[in-house]
Design brief:
Length: 162
């Protein structure tokens, strides 16, 4: 299932802490960026880079350019059918549940589910969702950019790295 053993180790670690796997080895449609793992836990979508090294400092790989690329990939993914379908397969949908879509992801009205927004405007390095929402505001989910470093078998999970 996973391309690299480090990604599998990271997934097993996250799974044991209550994460649900949405995607692994996600690539943007233009293939400029890959995100190793995308998970969901407690209403937070985690975009996770996995570094499995023998030595070194993995946080140094997360420079401004990489951060901009990952943010852009997150916006694209959260506006995609893949994210929408993953969330709908996880959520138990009932007429009583509703997520405040504002400029967000879904509205549940009398049992009907509809998609509300997608990335549509390119503003240089970033993409934005339609409406007045910030680029990563989905109304129902927050976002965390994480790093899992595995050095000599020791796992360190840094949440909200940037």
């Amino acid at each position: 299932m996973f391309r690299h053993s480090g990604e599998e180790k990271a997934w097993l670690y996250l799974q044991g802490r209550g994460h649900r796997l949405l995607e692994h080895n996600y690539r943007t449609p233009d293939r400029r960026t890959e995100i190793d793992l995308i998970t969901l836990k407690d209403g937070v979508v985690h975009f996770i880079e996995v570094k499995d090294w023998k030595s070194g400092i993995p946080t140094l790989t997360q420079n401004r350019k990489r951060q901009a690329m990952v943010r852009r990939a997150a916006v694209i993914y959260m506006g995609s059918d893949g994210f929408y379908n993953s969330i709908m397969s996880i959520r138990e949908i009932s007429p009583e549940k509703s997520m405040d879509a504002g400029d967000g992801l879904v509205v549940i009205d009398a049992g009907m589910v509809s998609r509300m927004s997608a990335p549509e405007c390119d503003t240089g390095d970033e993409l934005c969702l339609t409406g007045s929402a910030s680029p990563l505001d989905t109304g129902a989910y927050s976002v965390s950019f994480d790093l899992i470093s595995i050095i000599n078998g020791q796992i360190e999970h840094i949440e909200r790295l940037f």
